[in-house]
Amino acid sequence: MLFPIALTAKSEINLRPHTGIFDMSPLATLLREIRVGLGLSQVNFASALSLKGPYISEVETGKRYAPLLENIAPNLENLGMTGTQVKRLYTAERMSPRQVKIPPTASQEVFICAATLQEYMDWLEQDDFIKLTAFLHSLASKRSQQEAPNN
């Protein structure tokens, strides 16, 4: 596969080392995979989704965010997408936030961590983000096991 994501049977997104030309969000990557799989040009794919001609090109070159699925959902059926394919798109959209919302009741450390990540985002390498993601999953898994009632 040429793109840095793959969806497992659990509908989770697994990041892989990037092998494409441009870095894209998981949603943009999956939309490109669908477009190529359908054999559509960027302009024809944009038209099928009721988007302006250059929109998909700008998404695929990292100049724009991928469209919100709520805006293109009515057009997905026109492309003959199955329920499973649409579910994959919604999973990818969840993994492609445009901004992170921190609850106002979060601890100071949460705000500091988010600010630090934003400050150093341009300095971090792709592999650093893969490691950070794996570390966060590991922490969450440990915490959920600690909180699970002992049987």
TrEMBL record:
Residues of the HTH cro/C1-type domain: 31-65
Entries under InterPro entries matching the protein: Cro/C1-type_HTH, Lambda_DNA-bd_dom_sf
Entry protein name: Helix-turn-helix transcriptional regulator
Protein's organism: Vogesella aquatica
